Amino acid sequence: SSSLLRKARFYTSCLPLKKKDSKTRTVRSNLLLPGPETEKPKGSPLASNRLKTTKYTALSFLPKNLFEQFHRLANVYFVFIALLNFVPAVNAFQPELALAPVLFILAVTAIKDLWEDYSRYRSDKEINHMECLVYCRNEKKYISRYWKEVEVGDFVQLRCNEIIPADILLLSSSDPDGLCHIETANLDGETNLKQRQVVRRFLELDSEFDPLKFSSVIECEKPNNDLTRFRAYIIHTNGNRDGLYKENLLLRGCTIRNTEEVTGIVIYAGHETKALLNNSGPRYKRSKLERQMNIDVLWCVLILIVMCLFSAIGHGLWVWQFSEKKKPVFDVPGPDGNYLSPVLASVYLFLTMIIVFQVLIPISLYVSIEIVKICQVYFIHQDKDLYDEETDSQLQCRALNITEDLGQIQYIFSDKTGTLTENKMVFRRCTVSGIEYSHDANAKRLAMYQEPDSEEEETAPKGVTLSQRDSICSHQSVKAVHRSQSTKSHRRTGSRAEAKRASILSKHTAFSSPMSTLLKLEEKLTYSVQMNNNGYSAQQEKRAIESGPEEGELRYEAESPDEAALVYAARAYNCTLVGRLSDQVSIELPHLGTLTFEVLHTLGFDSIRKRMSVVVRHPITDEINVYTKGADSVIMDLLLPYDPRGKHQKKIESKTQNYLNLYAVDGLRTLCIAKRVLSKDEYACWLKSHLEAESCIENREELLFQSALHIEKNLHLLGATGVEDRLQEGVPETIANLRKAGLQIWVLTGDKQETAINIAYACKLLDHDEEIITLNAESPVSRSLPDGSVQIGFASFCTPSSSAHSKLGLVIDGRTLAYALDKTLENRFLLLAKRCRSVLCCRSTPLQKSMVVKLVRDKLKAMTLAIGDGANDVSMIQVADVGVGISGPEGMQAVMASDFAVPRFRHLEKLLLVHGHWCYSRLANMVLYFFYKNAMFVALLFWYQFYCGFSGTSMIDQWYLIFFNLLFSSLPQLITGVLDKDVPAEVLISVPQLYKSGQNMEDYQPHMFWMNMIDALYQSLVCFFIPYFTFYDSDMDIFSLGTPITTIALFTIILHLAVETKTWTFFHWSSCIFSILLFFFVALVYNASCPICYPPSNPYWTMEKLMGDPMFYLTCIISPFIALLPRYSISLSMCTLVIAHPLYILFVLELR
Amino acid sequence: MAVNYSAKEDADGHPSGGLGAAGGGAAKTRKPDNTAFKQQRLPAWQPILTAGTVLPAFFVIGLVFIPIGIGIFVTSNNIREYEIDYTGIEPTSPCNKCLNVSWNSTPSCTCTINFTLDHPFESNVFMYYGLSNFYQNHRRYVKSRDDSQLNGDNGSLLNPSKECEPYRTSENKPIAPCGAIANSMFNDTLVLYRIDNETRIPIHLNKKGIAWWTDKNVKFRNPSGDANNLTALFQKTTKPVNWPKPVYMLDSDPDNNGFINEDFIVWMRTAALPTFRKLYRLIERKNNLQPTLEAGQYSLDITYNYPVHSFDGRKRMILSTISWMGGKNPFLGIAYITVGSICFFLGVVLLIIHHKYGNRNTSADIPN
């Protein structure tokens, strides 16, 4: 499960093959004479290289942005209400003013969009104006052009360290072997260099490549986003066809390294390049809390409609009681002088009430939630506990809107390699021909792992690196200037954990090829050969190792850490890999000197075959050998069935299998190595079919797969290796703590069962006192049998009697998992899995991983989190509610697919237990508070309707009504939503049980919405009726009553928040005080500003008058008290109850 | 990510790959700052509700609120108030004959009600008229006015706002003041006499100083022009339909005529609730030796013009002294006393609970 390449290959094979519409692209040189118009294919023009990621232009911004914003239903609703105000018969407010909040919200979003788009525009511009060398026909040389001017068919020359401007087919390289190294960190985050190859036929050219003479036609597939695939062929003038591969393509965004000069023809430009096609925008996930909230928003709509209906009917009755002749003076007829009929009046009133009560649907809710989440993300980012010194990386939040989901996770699905373990492979043991050898040196080095790590890095002067590079890297005719550059750049990017580790052993860098898995194989081959031939004993090996470090000059970079481990180990026994080109491997052997093997073919890894092979020609014997490495289960099946050497071979096999089992028990990763000698005829026969497969565009993967199956059989077992992968720091503690927090942890790994179980014991996932249920379907041959056995297994454990076993662990292997995930069995499987404390799925494919996650997510309706580091975890990360990637050495695919990326597994603890808990409780409280606040404010207006004939009058001035949410009461709740801490971080960590409150949705349960509504009802009754009775039968005018009510409501709302706030910081205090002062300031200024403005309401001098009246203050003091007394008493009694709660005792103990 | 890489980033040695690049420099790391704000360790006060903090709070609230309540209650009780319903619903009422009066009935119906004050009214007395079941706060009614016309804007005077419809124009002339509020202005006349030995001594009722100062001086203004010749200023306008006489004939005093007539201003300040009172006249205390209104016989002459019977309205005349807290209203005092008592009671209950159960919990903690 470690090799990135293998994983990448897996994805390739997973992709559906393109439909055979034979729509290919034909690329010709632009330099060909004459008239490029006739040459160019008709139809859709090819994209230019100009980058345009902006969404808007100056002209289209307004309509397009508005159009996009109106996709949000809430926005449409608010605009509808604002427009309703322009209808004279129903309007409630000054129409222009009613538009203000909607416009404000729209403007805020628009400005945010504009800003984002502008920064995109600037980065586009910067990239578009980067320069590169393009061949010009007129001047017959390469001239400098902007990137945006590059077109398909242009010839581009690139120098070392330049960034590739488009997808370019490599036609020439300054490297004598036609190689070019590129760094793909910009694409996938992998920092090791990859080799690219000049198209084979151009490599054979004697003279320098001349673009003018290029007359071949390239036929390639339509632009697509698959980085690991390029299917094309080139047709030369003489009619010959050559296949082109991804090894020939330089991808836009990568950087040329260690190669002085390359030339190529542009195949895909601009937005059709693979890099840009791969760039999908951020994913939008909706959190569980938000889904719950949306239900309550719908309830609010229902409440609104009920209130409006009630008012409308009330108004109809009120109008009806005055018969036509006895119309009172205060019932104003319509503009035409006729009175409205009761029915019509109530219809109009219904619409008016919708306007008046619109505040019930909180317009600012969505905006506030977004603001709060951005701040929460900021704080998670800034947490120094989530920062890893070693890799200098911190947590990244890639999804901004699901922070609160972190507080509600119930199931964690974890990868093993690289997630629970370091993914720093150390070679430990091997078995060759049934004899076991151990590699003790690494065991010692493991112990003193850290110290040399940093020292070596610092004490290595650059000069040394350079000179040593020179001596060995013979095939690189790099000029001094460029070399130093490239070395420097490489040092820079390579200064990560992996590189550091590699530098312990050596100072030299030998770049692995993209097919570098091969390295391992080659080493293995020589290794085993050497040991067989020379009969090294274990003691001799030890001696060899002692001299090893002094002469260690090489530095290997492999795509997967365990490959590197094997190569290093081999070198310790003086079998040194000294050179690696795409078609040959040079190995220095102690007795034979340097041998150069010709690599004929590499058959890459895929997860179906679970193995990879290489076909080499032995330099001495000229034999053609196939070496295959892979999982033992696969290799063992492929061994020569009828054995000519009889029992001996059988014995080796059984011994090897035995050792493999032992390795697995020790937690080592095992690999089997096997060999097959091909006869010339066999090879020639196979070669023919293989070449056919290679040059095919459409079905290449399929055919290559078949071709590989053809050659990987009748193998002869050589041996097996065991590589150790250390547990990451703090993993057992983290798992224990997460478990205490009520989280179910499942480990889904591609490793073999024994290894997985062993690691599981090591990280305390399984306990020795646990009863372990192992589900292994015996035979893959007949389906009915394993089905039956699984069924029996399930049945026996599903009986209620088994509940006596409190501690169960379930181990299931991939094959059985496939049956268990079957529709008919999945429920039973889940039932069993639910009973178990931990579940371990071994030998599972990426697809199975995601299916397991999906099963739990959908069937158990549980919140799931998937954590992994490699490309094989991507699908599981995407399926889970929360995907966490580990930014480890296995590249960035997992991180790119994830919602959160953490440097280490142990960071999950704080991320979930502290930040998750906080985010959830903060947001839950804020949302509930929002509903309460709006309901309470709107209910005030509702009560007033009983005293104004349900006519839709609002005693609260329209300005207060419209800006109450936006200005006066928004800040404190935002501050609380961002900063409140219900429990301190230390307690959350030390009492993980507190996390269960989030899982059980304790902070926001459906009934809490209604509790808040009832509280809002009560509070609004108090806030309305205390002023009502105080000013009953007095000479108070409308706004002199409404202003105290508004003030009281504001006090109550802020004090309510104060009761709910658990921790008070400076920001809380100041925001509350600021809000109240702001209200008085705005009220005073507004009430004094204009005696005749703002029809229909005009509260001129109301506030000033009220503030001279002691009754105003007396009502304002007592009403919030009465309003909050019940809530305060309840939270008080809750507190008293909590004292007896077991958690509280823990809490108190922790504080001591 | 692939799109937004930039050359600059790369040159600085920070590949956007994200893995981190300490480089040789090591000065710049991604390590977050260890500040109290960023680490969410701001100094904070965590209110832990314990008996120690809550109990005193309850007692203090009780001790503060009860005296305030008593103070308000006593003040309210000391206010003298006398109220007469003169709607004339009861057949025995002197005003019963005027019950079905209409807006345009001429001559006006008059009635007299005699009443006795048992206690003297010591300080200044405010005379109110009160209306019940009169929805001056009806939405369309409230809107039906033109503030700029009332502010003396000549343009609006002749072209009132559309909000005034259908009381905007009459006989093709703009109505001044326009709108339903003005149209329905209270137009009963109340005159108060003291009956001293069978003789009716009129009591001086001050008609000025009853409106808000800002209304009288800022918000309401007569149209610009010769203030002494209001007739000319309002020449091109017509009176509201229900009014017997135009706005420039509301009073003889030029300082209380036209839009700045205080009775008009008071009426235009629309009442919040359907039962309301509006200040009608002031009776000022003449000297310190005599109460403003002595105990004794009084009579109230009413020119009954305002029809309320059709919508079951009531009309009242209220005499009231006034304190710092306004008119008589015992509600707030009672509320304060009640809340104070509840807090006190809760405090006592909590104290008992705390004594009975609180100790057990703390003692249970100690062995741990």
UniProtKB/TrEMBL annotation, chain A:
Gene3D superfamilies named in the record: Calcium-transporting ATPase, cytoplasmic domain N, Calcium-transporting ATPase, cytoplasmic transduction domain A, Calcium-transporting ATPase, transmembrane domain, HAD superfamily/HAD-like
InterPro entries according to UniProt: ATPase_P-typ_cyto_dom_N, ATPase_P-typ_P_site, ATPase_P-typ_TM_dom_sf, ATPase_P-typ_transduc_dom_A_sf, HAD-like_sf, HAD_sf, P-type_ATPase_IV, P-type_ATPase_N
A Gene Ontology cellular-component term: plasma membrane
Transmembrane spans: 73-91, 97-115, 295-319, 339-361, 927-947, 1009-1032, 1038-1059, 1066-1086, 1106-1125, 1132-1149
Provenance organism: Crocodylus porosus (Saltwater crocodile)
Protein name from the UniProt record: Phospholipid-transporting ATPase
Binding-site list for Mg(2+): D415, T417, D869, D873
Gene Ontology molecular function, alphabetical: ATP binding; ATP hydrolysis activity; glycosylceramide flippase activity; magnesium ion binding
Cofactor(s) needed for function: Mg(2+)
Active site: D415
From TrEMBL, chain B:
Keywords, in A-Z order: Cell membrane, Cytoplasmic vesicle, Disulfide bond, Glycoprotein, Golgi apparatus, Lipid transport, Membrane, Transmembrane, Transmembrane helix, Transport
Transmembrane segments: 48-74, 331-353
Secretion signal, residue range per the UniProt entry: none
Cellular location(s): Apical cell membrane; Cytoplasmic vesicle, Secretory vesicle membrane; Golgi apparatus; Membrane
Gly residues composition-biased segments: 15-26
GO terms of molecular function: aminophospholipid flippase activity; structural molecule activity
Stretches for region Disordered: 1-32
Protein name: Cell cycle control protein
Species, as recorded: Crocodylus porosus (Saltwater crocodile)
